[in-house]
Amino acid sequence: MRFTPKGYGGCRRNPDQIKREGWKEQGLLAVAVDDNRLSWPERELVRQLGEKLYGKREPEVRHG
Prior knowledge:
Layout: H1 15-26, H2 40-54
């Protein structure tokens, strides 16, 4: 007999489902600054909000 604690069995939720539930249940919004579902002005607003709340992002490191 196998016992699996609650939350460790079954199917895993995908990231969009977690984000959707976070928004609907707690009013939390998780948005990627490069989400292609957003228009340029919307992505720019997300970037500006992120910088206002958390500061500038680290520059991308290019390998090669």
